[in-house]
Amino acid sequence: MVRGGRSSAWAALTAGGLALVLACGDSLQQEELDCEEAVSHLEHCCPGFASGAIACVLQSEGCNTIVPDLSIADSQCIRGESCGQLVTNGVCARAQQAGSNRDGGAVLPAGQRVCR
Amino acid sequence: MRPSAVPLAWALVLAANTAAADAPDDEKEPEAPPRAEPAPTPRREPPRAVTRVALAGAYRGIYDLSAFAGGLGFSLGSEATHVGGYFNARALLGSTLAGLRVLDIATTGTVEFHYGGPRFGFGGGIAYFGIRRATTGGTLASVGALSVFRVGYDFADAASAGTAATAPRAASAGREGGAWILLDLEAQIQFGPVIWGPTLLLGWRF
Question: In this predicted structure, what is the pLDDT of residue A7?
Fold first, then answer.
């Protein structure tokens, strides 16, 4: 009886600890990670690229959802391009422009991809 | 017993002994066949305390990103003849292909089975995984559960197992320490993704 009670207590403690562990930290979302990886690539390839102007945050606040400046598709495309291609194809410039949208700067035409 | 019965009983005992001694061999009880000596059982070694240190290299997959990292590993445990239990800790520092810094720290408990040199085991624990943002310099970090399956080879144990047959005292040679190698296959259930990948550990056992 006592042993069964102890086992149950251990099981509950383990499950609780696991749940607590799994609830810790930031949510590692693919949108954010892909965006950050793409920005890092742009930083290395694009002269004068201001990475601080890009936001890679995915956040829901009520009805509003803030999405990263670079979509998953754009991010994957950027990571697949060489530095030369990013510059000559204008990806560096459009990516920088995408980051400026929030600040009232130049706006990319609706639906225009940063990387294509 | 009456006093007169004592000499009579004594005479009967003597007669019986004399008859048994004079009897031909075939009247004696057949001797039991010589028993085979039981095979000597291998001496069980008492559990040994083991400390291991290692250099580690790892690959990590997270969604469609890849990261490579290197670092240090440490284990503290106890091993009996064929099984052991370990507490392990390791820290890895590396980067993704595009250069995002990653930090992977884990503590695990493992059960390992070993037969001479080869060994395998499994276990679980807790892992921290952090990625430095390129945009802000902040860190995206998560702590989650980790499961591990490991295979390895202990060169000192292999050497002692190989010489034990010809030199029994060498059976304990593996206790003196030596080089070992482990390959861990890990899966971390983090807050969002499953981060997976192999970790190769090369080290020394004390």
Answer: 78
Rounded distance between C-alpha atoms, residue A46 and residue A64, angstroms: 32
Q: Which residue type sits at A114?
A: V
SS (H, E, C) B69-96: EEEEEEEEEEECCCEEEEEEEEEEEEEE
Angle at B73 between CA B68 and CA B75, to 5 degrees: 150
Give the Å distances, CA to CA, from B98 to A42, A68, A78: 9, 18, 11
- Residues 6+ away with beta carbon under 8 Å from B104: B58, B60, B69, B71, B91, B92, B93, B94, B127, B128, B129, B130, B195
* Residue whose C-alpha is closest to residue B106's, from B23, B189, B22: B189
How far is residue A80's CA from residue B146's CA, in Å, rounded to a whole number? 31
Q: What is the pLDDT of residues B58-75, one digit of tens each?
A: 999 999 999 999 999 999
Whether A55 and B133 lie within 8 Å, measured CB to CB? no
Asked if B64 is an interface residue toward chain A (Cβ–Cβ < 8 A), one would say yes
Residue B33: pLDDT band with limits 50, 70, 90: low
Q: What is the pTM of this model?
A: 0.75
Average pLDDT (B127-141) is: 95
Instruction: Give the count of beta carbons closer than 10 Å to the beta carbon of residue A91.
Output: 23
Query: What is the total residue count of chain A?
Result: 116
Contact call for B133 and A36, based on CB within 8 A: yes
pLDDT digits (tens, 9 = 90+) for B68-122: 999 999 999 999 988 999 999 999 999 999 999 999 999 999 999 998 889 999 9
DSSP A109: P
Q: What is the mean pLDDT of residues B12-26?
A: 50
Beta carbons of A33 and B131 less than 8 Å apart: yes
Angular region, B130: left φ>0, alpha ψ -120 to 50, beta rest? beta
Given a contact cutoff of 8 angstroms between Cβ atoms, the answer to whether B192 and A28 are in contact is yes
Asked if pLDDT for residue B174 goes beyond 60, the answer is no
Of A22, A28, A40, the CB nearest to B134: A40
